[in-house]
Design goal:
The chain is mainly α. It has helices at residues 4-23, 27-32, 34-52, 56-61, 67-79, 86-111. Helix content is 79%, strand content 0%.
Length: 114
């Protein structure tokens, strides 16, 4: 059975991959590159799926994370895939992923030290 720590690691790996993709191209390059867009959308879906499967207790202990928004983005990406605004995906990836990654790293380091 996967535990919260495992899911946090899944989230962290996806966020790192998103950052790497975004750092490889400016916005215009990202928006015109199908592979970059689809890879980023997929990884954001992974983040949302892992967030949805975090325990209720863990989510309650971390209200600083916008769980509903993250899970909601996953739902939009999966169910309204062709209607997703690519610029919004870019902005989320470029602006919100780095601080979210830092939050997740801090939680892992603090609550699940190895």
């Amino acid at each position: 059975m996967r535990r919260d720590r495992d899911r946090l690691v899944d989230i962290l790996e996806a966020l790192k991959s998103i950052e790497q993709t975004v750092n490889e191209a400016p916005e215009a390059g990202f928006l015109s590159n199908e592979d970059m867009y689809h890879a980023t959308a997929y990884r954001l879906t992974v983040v949302g799926e892992a967030a949805a499967r975090m325990s209720a207790e863990f989510k309650q202990n971390h209200p600083e994370i916008r769980w509903r928004g993250i899970i909601g983005l996953r739902n939009v990406l999966v169910h309204q895939y062709f209607g997703v605004d690519r610029t919004l995906v870019w902005r989320l990836a470029a602006d919100r992923v780095p601080p979210f990654r830092a939050q997740i790293e801090q939680i892992i380091d603090t609550e699940f030290p190895e």
